[in-house]
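Possible regression after last week's pipeline update?

I re-ran a chain I had predicted before the update to compare outputs. Posting the input and the new output here so someone can diff against the archived version. Not blocking, just want to make sure nothing changed silently.
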Amino acid sequence: MFDDTYKTIAGPSEGVYREKGSKFIALAFPVETEAMVKEHLAEIQKQYFDARHHCYSYILGPNKDAYRLNDNGEPSGTAGRPIHGQLMSKDLTNTLVVVVRYFGGIKLGVSGLINAYKTAAKEALDAATIIEKTVDEQFDVSFDYSVMNGVMQLLKDPYVNILCQDYNENYIIKFRIRRREADRIVMALNKINTVQIRDRSGVLVK
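New output (post-update):
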């Protein structure tokens, strides 16, 4: 069976690690798009403008197919990769972790940096509430008034979440449904006369 769930964090969290005068502040956020990532990064760079480095990693998508690691001036592989490793170890996606470093005057070396960024990221993620979400599909269903009862009966399914309803001209209902249940509901709706179903992109679904 297709695995249509994924783990992410419920809200922002923070962790702090100190080593030889350097302070590493880790900030974790739930995110769903690269635009959201950019917003958080811009805000952090503004808030911690006097920090030496703003290193980060994020993973997006239920299949974890979009991700990025950034060392932000630290030696290659010493910051973004250990942060990313903590996201992977907790099996998280749709999550951004930024570690802000205030340099304490003493170099930590490669192994010291890796440990510092790894530990700071772990502190932030350990402080977060990890939740499981379902992968959902979204559809618009349009139909004539004469078949409303049949359509509404199907949309009472426990896996269906009605987002909005428009009864101005044609009857149109926008709904979201767990992916593994989508085919069952779409096939049943398509058996009703006058019903048309379109996916999130507006493509007609048969």
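Follow-up from reviewer: compared with the archived run. The CA atoms of residues 141 and 197 lie 4 Å apart. Marking as no regression found.
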